[in-house]
Amino acid sequence: MTSSKDQQTQNTVEEKAPGRCISVFSNTGGVGATTLAINVASSMAAQLKGSVVLVDLILQRGDVSSFLDIPTLYTTVNLVSDSDRVDANFLRSVLPKHPSGMYVLPAPNSPDEADLITASQISHMLKLLGAHFEAVVIDAGHEYNDITLTVLDESDQVLLMSLPLLPSIRNTKRNLEMFERLEYDSSKIVLAVNRYDARGRWIRARSRRPWAILFTGASPTIMKQPSG
After folding, report:
1. For the chain, how many structural domains are there in total?
2. I need a labelling partner for 92 at 20 to 30 A (CA). Which of 71, 159, 166, 204 fits?
């Protein structure tokens, strides 16, 4: 039997227009995806005061808390357990707030805790966060598993992080082919090319679909959708 508190939480999730969900996914480790996720969340927090949350979903070895030097007293493990009593006031009381204005949900403190989390719990957690924040930014890691696929499926935008180097180019091609098999619309995917230089032209030359491109160099810019 559903309690009145459970029903209230469910109604909040269903009735409120969900916040925008943006995931940063990389084709391998060490390409700057966590830094990009932090920068995206920080930039959005400057515009959406107090309504942006950064979620570290690299569950077994996430580094967001270390990058930001924030406490990990309340993590994804706690939130999936507390889902029946979540509201805006509760979230803002338990999630650490960074000086940039964004709230942060750190990864679990140990791999053992991470193993307890399921894809269905993550799906429900994202809906809860989307009900109480205007933007949910996710550091989604670089491995395909049930949780990652759930996150990518439910994201409004996926920033695919890459480097202008041959191994990264090959992995990027594989990821784009995977996204095609998952039937993601091209408007959902943004290629984020870190350490960009003139060799970044490979993106346009080798892409079969009109992906948008984000170059993350000294002056990051969003480029419009290529025409072909």
Report:
1. 1
2. 159
Q: How distant, in Å, are the alpha carbons of 14, 129, 131, 138 from that of 9?
A: 9, 11, 10, 22
In a domain? residue 190: yes
Full residue range of the structural domain in which residue 126 is found = 21-223
pLDDT, one tens digit per residue, over 85-115 is: 888 899 999 999 999 999 999 999 988 888 8
Looking at the domain assignment, is residue 4 inside a domain? no
Query: Angle 209-150-94 (CA atoms, 0-180°, nearest 5)?
Result: 125
Tell whether 6 is covered by a domain: no
Q: What per-residue string of b and e applies to 155-180 under the rule 16 or more CB within 10 Å gives b?
A: bebbbbbbbbeeebbebbbebbeebe
CATH number of the CATH domain containing 123:
3.40.50.300
What letter would DSSP give residue 32?
Answer: S
Q: Could you read off the pLDDT of 148-186 as tens digits, one per residue? A: 999 999 999 999 988 877 888 888 889 989 999 999 998
Alpha carbon 103 to its chain's center: 14
Is 117 within 8 Å of 76 (Cβ atoms)?
Answer: yes
Would you state the pLDDT for residue 68? 93
Residue 16 lies in a domain: no
Rounded to a whole number, what is the distance in angstroms from the first to the last CA of the chain? Answer: 54
